[in-house]
Each structure stands twice: as structure tokens, then as C-alpha cells.
Write a structure and sequence with these properties.
The complex is a heterodimer of chains A (about 575) and B (about 120).
Chain A (H helix, E strand, L loop, with lengths): L2 H9 L6 H30 L6 H27 L2 H18 L3 H6 L7 H10 L4 H19 L6 H66 L3 E5 L5 E4 L1 H7 L3 H4 L4 H5 L6 H12 L6 E7 L2 E11 L5 E10 L1 H36 L8 H31 L8 E3 L1 H18 L3 E6 L7 E3 L1 H17 L5 E10 L2 E8 L21 H7 L5 H11 L3 E7 L3 E9 L12
Parallel strand pairs in A: 7-9
Antiparallel strand pairs in A: 1-2, 1-5, 3-4, 4-5, 6-8, 9-10, 10-12, 11-12
Chain B lengths: L3 E5 L3 H13 L3 E5 L2 H10 L4 E5 L7 H10 L7 E6 L2 H7 L5 E4 L4 H13 L1
Helix pairs in contact in B: 1-5, 2-3
The chains are: A alpha+beta (about 575), B alpha/beta (about 120).
Chain lengths: ~575, ~120
């Protein structure tokens, strides 16, 4: 601890009231200074003892010692007890000393008249600022009393000047106090502000860290590979899944550029182009492609990363291992090809032999044999229909079914369907009727093969679920821009809760019905998918025990450019 | 002398059925169960009708189709393409005289052959 610090500690008083502390500190300064003077006086007195009159030297020694003891007492009082009391006593003693330090004449109207200014000024600094007036009054009282006792006239100008001095020191002291109070207030406000800001910053940082930590944890733990590029196309974030997926060391991957990634040896020329294009041209919408990464098939999605103001700040790409799915897809296609060939070829053979038997190619046949051949034929045809439905369904789902637009006559289409379905309806004892809206143009543009498929599927379905009554097919024009196919039956109807699901593949209302009526329930799915492919849709209305109405509505195209069937 | 029909089909049963249909329509029938045999028969005979499956061992259907079309001796030959593949059927729609999509019914082929035989 330096001397200065020691000294400061020696004079500093701790107090809840900053003004009190300041005043007591000021008093301590005076006490210490006076104490020093007294100490010097003692030392000097002792040093010059021989040169003085013994009595005089003794008086100085005793006086200085008493002063020193008094100052120590005041110091103790000031430090430990009350500053106000200490200061009051200090000033009181000053006045006392001043009152007896000179001849009364000098005090009342001479050289010592002005020493009283000292306690007046000190009072406003050591006590409340207004106490200078009390000391001024006190001093005035002393002067007046002394003057009267010694038959002198008090110096009124001096008395006035005491009060003037008291006034000035009161003004200065009170202004000082106010200024200090303001400074303290400002400081306190500043402190509070700094504290608040610090607190806010600390909690914001904490939140941010927690948020970032959570995002990072999510990024680290998801199974898909994620990479984020900044605007200079350099990677800023890479998760462990991507490291595993791409089999590139993390040190290399974590700072890889779009260019470097697109030139990876695991990619062939075509896939390099796809990846580079995908990462370079990513828009706000997510775009996805499949690429071949070595032996793996990856699905890559990329999109822009934007900040809260919508400013682009980079690109994010998500890599998913699609190898197994791609394998399953390949197997499914292979399976379908096998079904297509291997299942249909023997069915074709059964169909042919049954026909030949029935046609008596191998010799005469009796009626029972003809009927048996018919049963074989109808069962084989049913089986073929199922196989064809499965294949159609698979083709539509794989996006391989195409619509060939060409002009056709609705009347001919309707006639053709009636011809094909008549026998099926008649076999069940149902009447099959048809109706053609005269509003419908004679020639429309569409895919007649697919339209026939829609009509046959709907009619087949209607016949399948109708035990008595009729099936009615109607082609009409509900408005200028559309035309509709409507098939109405008087069948069992569909329960209301099943209506939303009847177009789903492999689902048919009530499995007991399915067992009784046969079929996979793919017909309606195909109708819906074909209608959608043609830009239309299908709706159904049904009531249990009354029947169902299926309506396919399609855009009416009359003079569209005909697409030629060509290789 | 009756006219010749050539059945090119690798599946034994379909080959029999197609042959029977042609015979029922009055054709004399030769059968080839692979592309090579069909190629040989096409260089030694002049069939009026060829029922041509497109998936064949040794020499494939499209090559045989090209052979028939480029051989001036066979310019009168009617080619009936038989396939289960709808896209292939589409492709031959304009080139072949008739395109049949499998499954092919015996009566359907017999009736077609009868019409062709009368021509």
C-alpha cells in the first residue's frame, strides 16, 4: 500500500450519506494538518528549548500537546461517532481560541477581526451549508459582547461582512452539494444503465448460444447429409451424416467449395453437371435431383438460405441415401416386366387352346364341352383384366402412361363400349342403356383408347355391384368448357364413410362385397388417374340400396392440334 | 398350291395356336421358334403372311422385319407384328401392315387370316 493510499484511508470515513462522508473527510484533512502543525511545534519547541524562556517553552509544549490530544479526540469522534458533533466542536474550539488569541481591541476592531471569517467559511463546508449563518451570528455575538465589555463600539461593517461571507459560502457550498448530488444521480443512472445493458447482453448471448447449440445438435443428429455454402460457394457447415454419405474426410469436406464437390471423383461427367447445376442455380424453391455417387444413388435437394430480411446468404443442400429405394424401384420394374411377359404369355396360351376347343378345331365338341370352354375363357379374360389393371396402375404411378390426343367421335365410342359390355350386363340380367347429349360436338379431341378404358372400368364396376335393375351410360356437356361421362347404376350403393376412399388402390368398400363380386378394386383408381392425366376428375354420389352415380368430367377440346402417332 | 403363312414365335403354345389359326384360314404353315430359323425360311420361301413376334432368340424381331422390308422378293408379304409391349406396338403402327397386341385371341387371328387369304 502506497503512502497516498494509507493517507487516503486515514482520512476517509465510511457513511451512508455521501455528503456526510465528504464533510467528515474534509474535517479529517483539517484535523490532520493541524495535528501536523502541532507536532512540528512540539518538535521545534523541544529543539529550541534552550533558546527560550523555560516558562514560555513549557507553555508552548503543553499547549501543543493539549491541541494534539484535542485534535486526536475530535478525529476519534469524527471517525467513530458523529461528524456533525466533531465539526461543531472543532468550530466551537476555533472560535474559542480566536476569541482569546489576541487583545480584545484587536479582536473587536483590529487585525484579528478577520480570523472569524475562517470558521464561518469552514462551517458551510464541514456542516450543513446553512450553518455558516449560525457561525456568523456566533462570531457577531462574540464581537458585540467583547466590544460592550471593553467599552468599544462593534465594527458593524465587519459584522455585515461576516453575514455576507456566510451568504457567499452558503451559496457556494449549497451549489456544490447540489452539483455533487446531480453528479451522483447521473452516475447512479449510468451505473443502472450499464448494469441493465450488461444483463441484457448476457441473457441474449446465453439465448443465442442455447439456440445455436440446439440447431447444431439437430443438424448433427439427422440422418440426411447437410451442407451449407456461403455466398462465395464455400462450405460453412457440414454434418457427420454427410461425411459418412459422401465418404470424404471431414477436414476436407468442412471447407470444400461447390466447384470441388462437383468435381469429386465419385461422380461421372453427367452427374457432375447435374450437381453443379443444382447447387449453382438453386432458387427459393427447393429443387431435387437424383445423382449417382460412386455405387450410391443420392437424392440431392438444394435451396437458397435467406436471412430474416429475405437477403440471400448462401445455399443449403441436403443429401439422402436413395440407393435402396432406387434398387427397389429397379426390382419393381423388373418384376412388372416379368409379370407383363411371363404371366400374359401362358394366359394367352390358355385363351387360345380354350378357343380352339370351343371352335372344334380338334374335333367335334358337345354342348357341355362348349360351356366348359366358355367358363375357361371368361375366367382367363378376368385374370387378364386383373393383370392389365395392375400393369396400367404401375405404369401410371411410374409416370410412364402417356395420353395420345386425336380426334374421335363420342357416338362411336359409346356404341363400341355398349357392344363390349352388353353381354356382361345381359349375363347378370341387367339392362344397359345409353344416352348421348345432342349438345356434344360430333368430333372431340382426346385419347379414345383411354376414354374407352374409363367407360369400361366404370361400366364393369357398375355391373359388378348391381344385382338387379339397370346401368345407364350418358355422355353430356355440363357447360361450354367441359364434357362428362356419367355411369348410373341401381346397385348396392357405397357407405358414406367409404366414399372418400373408393379411389384408393386396392381398397373396396366392405371386403365381403369384394369377395362376392370379385376384383381388386383397381378399376376406379385407374379411372381417377386417367381422368387426372387428361386434366379432369371424377366424382361419385351414392346411396345405400339405391345406387351410385360416377361422373368423369374432362376439358372439352374440339380443335386441338392432333398429335400423330409415330415412332 | 395353297399360300404360305410363316409363324415366327418362340413360345411353343402360342406358335401352335397361331399356326392353327392360319391353317383354319386355309394357309399352309411354316413355324420358326427362333430368329435364325426364321431368317433361313425367309430366304428360301416367299410367305404371303408373316406373324412376327418381336422378342426372339438368336436374331431379334426388328432385324427380321428390316430383312423382309428390304428384300424385293418379299415386297408382297403381309407382316403382322405380334407383341405384348404396348410401346413397341405403337412404334410399329405405321410400318407393319397389322399390329396385334398380346394376348391374341385365336378367333381374332383366324378371322384376320381369313380376310388376308381372300385378298
Amino acid at each position: 500500500m502506497t503512502l497516498q493510499q494509507r493517507l487516503r484511508q486515514f482520512i476517509t470515513v465510511s457513511s451512508a450519506d455521501p455528503d456526510d462522508a465528504r464533510r467528515r473527510q474534509l474535517l479529517n484533512i483539517f484535523l490532520v494538518l493541524l495535528g501536523l502543525i502541532a507536532a512540528i511545534a512540539i518538535i521545534a519547541d523541544l529543539a529550541l528549548w534552550k533558546a527560550q524562556e523555560p516558562q514560555e517553552a513549557l507553555v508552548i509544549l503543553v499547549g501543543s500537546l493539549i491541541t494534539l490530544i484535542g485534535l486526536s479526540g475530535l478525529y476519534w469522534l469524527n471517525m467513530r461517532k458523529s461528524g456533525t458533533l466533531a465539526a461543531s466542536l472543532f468550530i466551537f474550539f476555533l472560535l474559542l481560541i480566536f476569541s482569546f488569541s489576541d487583545s480584545p481591541k484587536e479582536i473587536v476592531d483590529g487585525r484579528s477581526l478577520w480570523v472569524f471569517v475562517v470558521p464561518i467559511i469552514l462551517a458551510s463546508g464541514l456542516l450543513k451549508s446553512w450553518s455558516s449563518f449560525i457561525v456568523a451570528a456566533f462570531s457577531s455575538g462574540i464581537i458585540v459582547v467583547m466590544a460592550l465589555e471593553n467599552n468599544l463600539f462593534p465594527n458593524l461593517v465587519a459584522l455585515f461582512l461576516y453575514f455576507a461571507m456566510a451568504f457567499i459560502s452558503w451559496i457556494i457550498a449549497s451549489n456544490l452539494e447540489r452539483a455533487l448530488a446531480e453528479v451522483r444521480l447521473v452516475n447512479a443512472n449510468l451505473d443502472r444503465l450499464v448494469q441493465e445493458r450488461t444483463q441484457a447482453l448476457v441473457s441474449a448471448l446465453g439465448r443465442e448460444r442455447a439456440e445455436a447449440g440446439r440447431s447444431r445438435a439437430i443438424l448433427e443428429s439427422i440422418a440426411d447429409g447437410v451442407i451449407v455454402f456461403d455466398l462465395r460457394n464455400k462450405a460453412t457447415h457440414v454434418n457427420p451424416a454427410l461425411v459418412r454419405l459422401l465418404e470424404i474426410p471431414e477436414e476436407k469436406l468442412s471447407a470444400i467449395t461447390v466447384d470441388e464437390l462437383s468435381r469429386a471423383p465419385a461422380l461421372d461427367a453427367k452427374n457432375r453437371g447435374i450437381l453443379a447445376g443444382l447447387l449453382a442455380a438453386s432458387g427459393k424453391q427447393i429443387s431435387s435431383y437424383r445423382i449417382q455417387w460412386g455405387k450410391k444413388t443420392l437424392s440431392v435437394s438444394a435451396a437458397q438460405v435467406t436471412d430474416i430480411n429475405g437477403e440471400r446468404i448462401g445455399t443449403v443442400a441436403v443429401f439422402r441415401d436413395y440407393t435402396r429405394e432406387a434398387e427397389v424401384e429397379r426390382m419393381k420394374n423388373t418384376f412388372l416386366a416379368i409379370v407383363s411377359h411371363e404371366l400374359r404369355t401362358p394366359l394367352n396360351a390358355i385363351l387360345g387352346y380354350a378357343e380352339m376347343l370351343k371352335e372344334a378345331i380338334y374335333g367335334p365338341v358337345n354342348e357341355k364341352q362348349v360351356r366348359a370352354s366358355d367358363r375357361i375363357l371368361s375366367n382367363v379374360r378376368r385374370l387378364l383384366d386383373i393383370v392389365n389393371d395392375l400393369l396400367d396402375q404401375a405404369q401410371i404411378e411410374a409416370g410412364k402412361m402417356t395420353i395420345q390426343m386425336q380426334p374421335f367421335q363420342p357416338a362411336a365410342l359409346l356404341e363400341n363400349v355398349i357392344e363390349i359390355m352388353n353381354k356382361t350386363a345381359a349375363d347378370k340380367g341387367l339392362t344397359l342403356t345409353s344416352e348421348l347429349d345432342p349438345e356434344l360436338p360430333q368430333t372431340l379431341t382426346g385419347d379414345p383408347a383411354r376414354l374407352q378404358q374409363i367407360l369400361i372400368n366404370l361400366t364393369n364396376n357398375a355391373i359388378k355391384f348391381t344385382d338387379r335393375g339397370s346401368v345407364h351410360i350418358r355422355l353430356f356437356r355440363p357447360n361450354k368448357k367441359q364434357w362428362s361421362i356419367e355411369v348410373t347404376d341401381t346397385g348396392v350403393g357405397i357407405p358414406e364413410d367409404e366414399l372418400p376412399h373408393i379411389f384408393e388402390a386396392f381398397r373396396q368398400a366392405d371386403s365381403t362385397l369384394t369377395r362376392r363380386h370379385g376384383g381388386f378394386g383397381l378399376g376406379l383408381t385407374i379411372v381417377q388417374q386417367l381422368a387426372n392425366l387428361m386434366g379432369g376428375g371424377v366424382t361419385v354420389k351414392s346411396k345405400i340400396g339405391v345406387g351410385s352415380v360416377f361422373t368423369v368430367t374432362l376439358p372439352l377440346v374440339v380443335n386441338a392440334q392432333t398429335k400423330r402417332r409415330k415412332t | 398350291m395353297s399360300e404360305l403363312g410363316l409363324v415366327v414365335e418362340d413360345d411353343l403354345d402360342l406358335a401352335i395356336i397361331f399356326s392353327e389359326a392360319l391353317q383354319a384360314a386355309g394357309f399352309e404353315v411354316e413355324t420358326a421358334r427362333d430368329g435364325q430359323k426364321a431368317r433361313d425360311l425367309l430366304t428360301t420361301t416367299i410367305p404371303k403372311v408373316v406373324i412376327l413376334d418381336l422378342h426372339l432368340p438368336l436374331v431379334d424381331g426388328p432385324s427380321l422385319f428390316e430383312q423382309i422390308r428390304s428384300d424385293p422378293r418379299l415386297k408382297e408379304t403381309i407382316v403382322v407384328v405380334a407383341t405384348a409391349d404396348a410401346r413397341l406396338a405403337e412404334a410399329y403402327q405405321d410400318q407393319a401392315d397389322v399390329v396385334l397386341i398380346k394376348p391374341i385371341s385365336f378367333t381374332q387371328l383366324r378371322d384376320l387370316s381369313q380376310r388376308l387369304h381372300k385378298e
